[in-house]
Amino acid sequence: MTSELTSEVTGDVNGSTTDAATAAARPGPTNGLTDVEGLRVGHASRTGDGWLTGTTVVLCPPGGAVAGVDVRGGGPGTRETDLLDPRNMVERVHAVVLSGGSAFGLAAADGVMRRLAADGTGLQVGGPGEVVPIVPAAVVFDLGRGGDFTARPDASTGEQALTAAQSAPAGPVVQGATGAGTGALAGGLKGGVGTASVVLPDGTTVAALAVVNAFGSCVDPQTGELYALSFGMPGEFPPLRRPDAHDVEQARRRAAELAAKAGLGPGRATTIGVLATDRTLTKAQCAKIAGIAHDGMARGIRPVHTMFDGDTVFTLATGATPAPDAAAFHALLDAAGDCFTRAVGHAMLAAESVSTPAGQWLSYRDAYPSAFASVGSGPTGILDTTTTTSETTDTTTDATTDTDDGESAHP
After folding, report:
1. Omega before 234 cis (within 30°)?
2. What protein family is recorded (predicted)?
């Protein structure tokens, strides 16, 4: 496998893969994180009665996965990131938690640890059953967006998301305003969860999951086009047209009004995510991939890594296939950056408009309807959670839609 890829990569490792190698790459079966065999994703979301938040759990295969992390935002909210330093002892993690709730949302990892420990999953530190699950976590700021500042994920939310991951067969990851992306915003538009994958010419699978809740924008302010769309694989994104000038001007005005209302404050945004591969990698290599994912983030969001963001990316290597040589690792890095950019694009396209007592945020589709003139109306409308009875919903990877008791304006 490795020799096939080596023959297709140019001798100049400062460049990208050759046209032949790029042409041979393709999205995975579901174009999502679970295309890396052994990984599962579960969401828990809560909306209504002041709630607009949730938690996403990425569950590793039995025995865990080698992991790394790169934290670049100026206001991060994280857990167990020091442990992932290549100089430190523990190699493998058993799950990764991504959550809303700002620093309060880190409590969701407690519920995941508790459940994993009860199942006997974790780092063995003593006799039978004496384990410590290793569960790194990162959070986004969504406090008060449902109307109640105290409505935020806790340990029970983490348990619910883990249950969703454990009970789901391998399959597509639910995207949009779900899990950790339930209350996400991005540059004045509704953000959410997005995912993408690629299978390289040598059979290596690389995938990304992004929770887009950025201070910066995912949209070119001059044209109204999503930055990420130009990095899609052939046929991956719908054939959108450039939005009309009227839509662009209206979107600029709304964004300026929302920015003035929200003001600036520490850690009020953040994009977080997970990169994954089936290759055998070291912690140092995983950290390098996480850093390259930030390059992909910067291609899909502008600006990134601000003092108001806590941008953080984890990398998981399941070790199902052998360690790459230098050329194959270069190709993996190249794919990782593009995968994260594409995941950002899918998050923005999958998000739906929402209205709560705290405000109303339009999806990209509803803010720029003229962009979709050639692809049909699609799922437009505003999810109104202002009078909804609060209910927690588990969303599993085999679901096709995220459900709750909210009144939807969809036809």
Report:
1. no
2. Belongs to the peptidase S58 family.
Measuring CA to CA, how many Å separate 54 from each of 91, 145, 146, 187? 28, 12, 11, 20
- Counted domains in the chain: 1
Q: pLDDT tens digits, residue range 279-301?
A: 999 999 999 999 999 999 999 99
Residues 6+ apart with CB under 8 A from 315: 67, 68, 69, 274, 275, 276, 277, 281, 286, 287, 289, 290, 293, 336
Span 207-235, pLDDT tens digits? 999 999 999 999 999 999 999 999 999 99
Range of the domain at 352: 2-379
Asked if residue 409 is part of any domain, the answer here is: no
309, two tokens: 């963001």
Question: What ranges in 214-372 are assigned the alpha helix state H?
Answer: 245-262, 283-300, 326-350, 364-367
Q: Is residue 263 left, alpha or beta, with left meaning phi > 0 and alpha meaning psi from -120 to 50?
A: left
Nearest Cα neighbor of 408 from 373, 376, 381 is 381
For residue 143, being part of any structural domain is answered with yes
- Is 193 in contact with 43 (CB distance < 8 Å)? yes
Decide if 291 is inside a domain.
Answer: yes
In a domain, 320, yes or no: yes
Confidence (pLDDT) at 248: 93
CATH at 163: 3.60.70.12
319: left (phi over 0), alpha (psi -120 to 50) or beta: left
